[in-house]
Amino acid sequence: MIEKTIRGLGRWGLRIVRTMGSMALFLINAIAVTFQRPFKFRLLLKQIRFFGSKSLLVIALTGAFTGMVLALQLYYTLRKFGSEALLGPAIALSLIRELGPVLSALMVTGRAGSALAAEIGIMRISEQIDALVSMALNPFRYLIVPNILAALITFPLLTSIFDVIGIFGGYIVAVELLGLSEGTYFSQIDAFVDMEDIRIGLYKALSFGLIVSWVCSYKGFNTGFGAEGVSKATTEAVVLSSVLILIWDYFVGSLFM
């Protein structure tokens, strides 16, 4: 019984190591192909629209209500310490350093990442990727690189939009509903939030863009056969991306404390 358990753990560990190595080689190949000419600008613009403009609505709604919820919860917490004037910077710092990058990445993962994994997975099972290879065309240049570059461009922009809308969502609740002074709200944000906080949020958004595009592209590219294989690859892509976002957020946050 013990021997069987140890063998099972060994197989599980080897499978994880093999998958990690395969994913690392996948990313290295994508990076190497990125600098080969001619560049696929049309595909890049298409994927920027796919990741960016098509995600604006969900980003705006999530940002607005995140800011409003933060205002409500933080106000009643700060009021216990007589620090209601710090509500503005508390909302801004929470959004800029943590919630903005993380929630934006999770929302885009659910909307665009799942679609990306399913799209590439369908191309795999319908042999479209094999057709590219048979025509001596590198599938990484046409399918992987545009998605990674588009995610690196759009994730920081979407995070910035999320932060701004979230701060104004908090303003609506704090000033219009709770009666906080408008001048106090914005002046305290200006006093406590600096460029270092903004840079940390953008660094996180950039790294999350790489994680989501990398994982979702990899899972779609290596999907199994049939509808079940595509469904499994899509689910694994969303779950793994979300988990890695939260894990990486912790390490980046601890690094910039």
Q: Give the percentage of residues in beta strands.
A: under 5%
Radius of gyration: 22 Å
Number of helices: 9
- What share of residues is helical? over 70%
Overall shape: globular
Domains (count): 1
Q: Between the first and last Cα atoms, what is the distance in angstroms? A: 47 Å
The average pLDDT value, as a whole number, equals: 87
Q: Classify the secondary structure makeup into a structural class.
A: mainly alpha
* Total beta strand runs: 0
What is the succession of H and E elements? HHHHHHHHH
Task: Report the biggest beta sheet as strand number plus sense, adding barrel if it closes.
Answer: none
Unreliable stretches covering 5 or more consecutive residues: none
Write a brief structural summary.
Helices cover 86% and strands 0% of the residues. The protein has 257 residues and is an all-alpha fold. It has one domain (40-255).
